[in-house]
Design goal:
Blueprint: E1 3-5, E2 11-17, E3 22-27, E4 32-35, H1 40-48, H2 52-59, E5 66-68
Antiparallel strand pairs: 1-2, 2-3, 3-4, 4-5
């Protein structure tokens, strides 16, 4: 999965696998989470968001199943 560095105080990089619709989020703390069944437009919106952390909290957390990697 190709990871994209992002400018965020909480998130260091995000990546997306189209085939499995898996969003991967690497936090500055070193923790990595995968979110499942995420539509591609959510990933693209996150890439374009003014605040990646705010977007994550609003559109991803509590919406999609996840697992810590």
């Amino acid at each position: 999965m190709e990871m994209h560095l992002v400018d965020s105080s909480n998130v260091s990089a995000i990546g997306y696998d189209e085939d499995s619709q898996t969003l991967q989020v690497e936090f500055n703390s070193g923790a990595t989470y995968q979110y499942f069944d995420v539509p591609q437009q959510i990933f693209e919106g996150m890439l374009d968001a003014g605040s990646v952390g705010q977007y994550l909290n609003q559109y991803v957390k509590g919406v999609f199943r996840y697992s810590r990697v």
